[in-house]
Specification:
This protein has 119 residues and is mostly helical. Helices cover 81% and strands 0% of the residues. It contains 8 helices and no strands.
């Protein structure tokens, strides 16, 4: 397959097709199904490990403590931290989007519980 890819050449259209497919995913369940078909278990675990440490890094927790709590290697933690600081902004974009979504869900839950307790 690698020989075929080098013969065809890498182009942005092939990358775009993959990113468009990922962008079409609408639920975590769909994402799970898609990535389990697309990736090996080891590749999925590598992505899980990277995403898992983002919140720890953003909270300023030392790498060794992150390792102790997650088991994710210090090398991987450093790679994620470097991407957070110098990467394309993808980790930060999605982290902030999910944080905002989580905050909105909590606001709705709190407003419903206040309405119930006032009755």
């Amino acid at each position: 397959m690698k020989a075929r890819l080098s013969a065809i050449g890498k182009n942005e259209d092939s990358d775009h097709g993959l990113y468009a497919a990922i962008g079409a995913i609408t639920t975590p369940e769909e994402a799970k199904r898609f990535f389990e078909d697309l990736c090996t278990p080891t590749e999925i675990q590598a992505m899980v490990d990277r995403w898992r440490v983002v919140a720890f890094i953003k909270a300023g927790i030392p790498y060794r403590q992150i390792y102790d709590e997650t088991g994710v290697s210090v090398t991987t933690i450093g790679r994620v931290a470097r991407c957070l600081m110098l990467g394309e902004g993808g980790y930060n974009l999605i982290y902030q989007r999910l944080e905002k979504k989580h905050e909105n869900v909590n606001k709705v839950k709190n407003s419903h519980s206040k309405k119930r307790s006032s009755k």
